[in-house]
Structures are given as structure tokens and as C-alpha cells.
């Protein structure tokens, strides 16, 4: 089968809903008609100077802080770069990255490009990734150069040789010359025509947005497909539990910011938890 035959369109029949459930979920406030990406972009406009991501890097005691304005610019630039690499709507972009600012940039950029985020734990190795890359028909894989003594770049090269759909490897570090570097290649300013393409690709609330694999401890991993609504609903209870405040002027409870810090080490119920700045 070709990569496009393996793509998410071929799995669309797995998303089973009916009109009565849709109406009930919206009436209860569990689902809505906007996405976490919409919330994030609203926060970029409303709170450009507020801190969005605070990340520490190995060897430095001082954190790197990205404001919403900076994060929004990085996300748009990275999304444009993904599109220029050939990423289409509903393609899968796999991310195997440790804690850091790179993960939210790439995750949100993937959504901005209309593609699906596939987060993968950094502890997974060749056996797990080989299955996941083939099953998801991933077009792009983003990895750390090296983490805790393991070369993720070397593994990514092996995976690319055996995965027909895997066209590009993006390295969040100092990669070898033949690999794409996140900061050098993916954060260049967008062309004006590309910004219009980002708006054309903007996902809707019931579109698929996340492909999550189970651990596979008792068999081969199973792929779970989330829409933006199921992702948002899963994260709401945790955000409430953390007593995160509402964003002033971004629509009350229905518009509270859900910065999708989609991370590979959390269960799927954690995926939509993020920052809702409140002053």
C-alpha cells in the first residue's frame, strides 16, 4: 500500500459519532465549536508578553522563557516549514522529544499545518518505533540529537531506511549536516502566501488532531485517534483540578486557554492540559 493509502483518511471510518451524542456533548460543555489551537492563537493576540513556556536545558541553570508572542511566531514559522517539506492535511508528524520548548513548538506547528501529532516516549527504541512509524505512515519524525547517552538521530536514520513514507527527519539539537535542524531550517520567517495557507488549513473541532499509541506491554501497540474535541474534553478536568484561571476576554469557560503541551510521557487524559494565563 502507498503512504496515502495508509494515511488517516483511510482510518476515518473508525471515528464513530452520531448527531444526538454531538448535541448532548456540546450542551454539557464537554465539546465545543473551536479547537485548542484556536485558544492558543487567541492568547497569542491577547497576551503576547505573558510567559507561555519555561524550559530548562542541560548544563544551564537559567531557564529559557518563550512568551505567547514568541511562541506564536515560532509555531507559524515551523508550520510553514512543515508545509514546504510536503506535509499535507491529515499527514502524521511523529515527535520523540524530551522536555523542552521544542516539543510544544512542533506539536502546535503540526496542528497549525493541519496535520496530526503523534507523540512518542523518549524511552522507546527500534522495536516500538518501527511498528509505530509504519502503522502511522509518518511523513516527518522529530527527534533529539542525543538524550541520556542514546543517539536518537542514529535510530531515526535506520527507521527512515525501512519506512517508505518517512521523508524527513528533524533534529532538535546539533545534527549531522544531512539532517534538518529545527532552529536553522524550521524557524525562518514565513512567506506572505504561506500565512494564507495556514489559515486555509486551520482545523475544525471535530477534525482528527492526535494519534496516540498504547504502550504495547501486552502486545503490539494500539493506535488511538483523538479529535480536537475529545482532546479538549480529556484535559478539562485536570485543568480544573489545577485551579488554572480563565483568560480575561477569551470567552469564559468555553474559551479558557488549552495550550496543547502534548507530551509523550503522559497518558492521553493529560494531553490537553496547559497554561491558561490569568494575570
Write the layout of secondary structure elements.
Blueprint: H1 3-6, H2 19-27, H3 36-46, E1 51-55, E2 64-67, H4 68-84, E3 92-96, H5 102-112, E4 116-119, H6 126-136, E5 140-144, H7 152-162, E6 168-172, E7 180-181, H8 182-185, H9 192-200, E8 208-213, E9 223-227, H10 228-241
Parallel strand pairs: 3-4, 3-5, 5-6, 6-7
Antiparallel strand pairs: 1-2, 8-9
Helix pairs in contact: 3-4, 4-5, 6-7
How would you characterize the overall build of this protein?
- Residues 247-279 have low confidence and may be disordered.
- The N and C termini lie far apart (52 Å).
- The longest helix has 17 residues, at 68-84.
- Helix 4 crosses helix 5.
- The strands form three sheets. A five-stranded parallel sheet has the order 4-3-5-6-7, with helices on both faces. A two-stranded antiparallel sheet has the order 1-2.
- The chain has helices at 3-6, 19-27, 36-46, 68-84, 102-112, 126-136, 152-162, 182-185, 192-200, 228-241; strands at 51-55, 64-67, 92-96, 116-119, 140-144, 168-172, 180-181, 208-213, 223-227.
- It is globular and about 50 Å long.
- It is of the alpha/beta class and 279 residues long.
- 39% of the residues are buried.
